[in-house]
Each structure stands twice: as C-alpha cells, then as structure tokens.
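EI: anyone free to look at a 246-residue chain?
SC: sure, send it
EI:
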Amino acid sequence: MFVGWLFARSMKTIWRQQKTWGIFARKHNLDVAKGKWYQAPRVEGEINGRRINIYVEEVVDPVLRVREFRTTLEIYLKTGLPTGIAIGSRAYTSVLSEIENVEKMTLPEEKEFTGLRCVARDVHLFDTWKNAHLDDLKTFFSIKRAERLLMGHEVDGFLILQTADNLDDIKTLNTQVKQLFALAKNIEVSDAPEDLIEDQGEEVAEITPETILDDDNSDIVDTKEISEEPIEQATDEDKKVEDNIK
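SC: here you go
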C-alpha cells in the first residue's frame, strides 16, 4: 500500500516537472530531452548567452550513505574567475580534495561557510576576489536543503545547485534560476574596466520573483506572460494521466 502511494506521488512529481520545465523551456527557447515516461526531462541551452542545464540526478550522501534524487541546476559563467577557484559543500568535499596544484583557502567563520571546502591556485588573487564578493558567496552558500558548488578558472566556470526542491512550480523555478543568474553575473570577471561600468550610470532593474529572468536586466517580462494555465487548465488527456497517478 505504502509502496504504491510512494510510486504515485513520485510519478505526479515527474509529471509536474515535465509540464513546468516545458513551459520554462518554451519561453526561453531551450532544448528539452524528455527521456522515458517515468523520468524527469532534461532542459539545456542558453538564456541571453548564458548556458543553463536543468535535470534530475541520483546522488549519494557521503555521510549518511543514502541515495536520493536531486533537482540540479547548472549555471555557467560568461567569462571566468581571476584564478582557479573551487568552493563546495559536503557532497563535493572529496572531489575538491583531489584537485592538484591548488592550496586550501580559509573562509570567514560564518554560518554560511560551515562545512565548506575551498581551494584556489593563487592566494592573493583569491583573497581579493573573495573580499569583493563575500555577500554573493553568503547568498549562494546559504541556500537551504541543497548541495552547492562554485568552480572556475580564468576562462570559464559554473555554479551547481543540487536541491531537494522538485522545482515543479513555475514561480519557484523562475525565482531560483533568476537568483543563480544574478550571482553568476556578479562573481564573474567583467569584460569592461570598472570605471567604464560606473560611468554608464544606468539604472539596474530590480530582480524580484515577479519578473521573469533577464540576465542583462533589460526588457524584463512579467511572469503573467508565462501563465500557469497549461498546468491549471490541462487538456482532457492530461487530466486522465493525472487521475491515473493520484
């Protein structure tokens, strides 16, 4: 009885992910690999020139040694970092310990950085970058119920978030992606000199959950344009599928 209920619940989650991620992908012209009927889709492509991947991955907790499925977001930097840098939470500590030609770095003694492993190639460049982006690092590593990884070098880099949240709601997905895009933009090395950026004097649009992601902060579209209608007013065929997995 319990096994049947668990299976039905899992299938309903996958069905919602297929619907919600499909809406998000269509809005941003992303590719969707649907996979088998009992699998969550994989979404990948670029939004305003920034690469993004969304998928579900089976992970093993290194401490509890239990397997679970995590929704994974990969957001790539457009440029890179000032030197080789890798900062990861518990699930990534063993991987980071195997990186060669780096030194272990010390992060401030704050709760957001508890249990993290941090390595970098150049101590001076890392400290300068860290001090300039401490608030961004706090924001990223304070995300709850998730494993987090920041890694990159002078050419490119990425943020990975493995969350226990299914992200099967369009507003939740949109908000999480927007947050990671803003962080990626903040921490990467800018192509332009700082004085040129400051002289532009452009007003930066506020990033809020009510607006759809726009990495360049221009032509921001209200989430009302991404109606949840396809989920709430599903076709008769969709309703039959949902009824079968309740």
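EI: The longest strand covers residues 50-60.
SC: 👍
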